[in-house]
From TrEMBL:
SUPFAM superfamilies in UniProt: C-terminal effector domain of the bipartite response regulators, CheY-like
Limits of the Response regulatory domain: 3-119
Entry GO MF terms: DNA binding
The keyword DNA-binding appears for this protein: yes
Signal sequence range: none
PANTHER family, sorted: HTH-TYPE TRANSCRIPTIONAL REGULATOR YHJB-RELATED, NARL SUBFAMILY
Alphabetically ordered keywords of this record: DNA-binding, Phosphoprotein, Transcription, Transcription regulation
Protein name, entry field: DNA-binding response regulator
Pfam family name, one: Response_reg
Lineage: Bacteria, Bacillati, Bacillota, Bacilli, Bacillales
Organism of provenance: Paenibacillus marchantiophytorum
Residues bearing the modification 4-aspartylphosphate: D54
Domain HTH luxR-type: 141-206
Length: 214
């Protein structure tokens, strides 16, 4: 049996979530809370396995509540339920190793599935949220590429062709020292780890064509 608490400041939303999760096999709602103080007191009494936490609790934030609960020694699992989440909140939730995030707009069967996944010890992050985050990362990459200077773009294309600093310097009529500076700038602006990643990035963007070695 999975004993859980629902923390949400909207009574109708709480009742709806309670009705959904209570329909699942081996799921038992042991209490409801409208704010962090009530939830912490309820956790002391019931020792739940899982807490479903609204991200926006009026003047409070669900992530802050989870941090407070953990500091108080509550080691149960936590799942964020939200209608919307910022990129920074999503990143913070990931860094906090929060077990689950599910959109309130999810179908009832999706919420039940998410709860079951988290209860089994795995993480569940709503695919819609993760897809949006991937789109944001891709958009940022495109923006970063547009921020390269013409010379940095030439250096990136040369890296995509597998050229050494000496070869790049010769091709672009600049010194090797200048090449090194441009390479560092390219890696920084595109958030890439090394020359290999830069080369793969150039290939993925169609800046250069892959050439078979003869």
């Amino acid at each position: 049996m999975i004993n859980m608490i629902i923390l949400d400041d909207h009574p109708l939303v709480r009742k709806g979530i309670c009705s959904i999760v209570s329909s699942g096999q081996s799921m038992n709602v042991v209490g409801e809370a409208t704010n962090s103080r009530e939830a912490l007191a309820l956790m002391e009494r019931t020792q739940p396995d899982l807490v479903l936490v609204d991200l926006n609790l009026g003047n409070e934030n669900g992530l802050d509540f989870i941090q407070a609960a953990r500091r108080a020694g509550h080691t149960c699992k936590y799942m964020i339920l939200t209608s919307s989440v910022t990129r920074s909140e999503l990143q913070l939730a990931q860094s906090m190793q929060i077990e689950g995030i599910c959109l309130k707009e999810a179908f009832p069967e999706d919420l039940l599935y998410a709860v079951e996944v988290v209860a089994r010890g795995r993480k569940y992050y709503d695919p819609v949220l993760m897809g949006s985050m991937m789109d944001d990362k891709q958009a940022k990459k495109e923006q970063d590429l547009s921020e390269l200077t013409p010379k940095e773009l030439e250096v990136l294309m040369s890296l995509g062709k597998g050229r050494s600093n000496k070869e790049i310097a010769s091709a672009l009529f600049i010194t090797e020292f200048t090449v090194k500076k441009h390479v560092s700038q390219v890696l920084a602006k595109l958030e890439l780890a090394d020359r290999t990643q830069a080369a793969l990035y150039a290939l993925s963007k169609g800046l250069v064509q892959f050439e078979m070695q003869r």
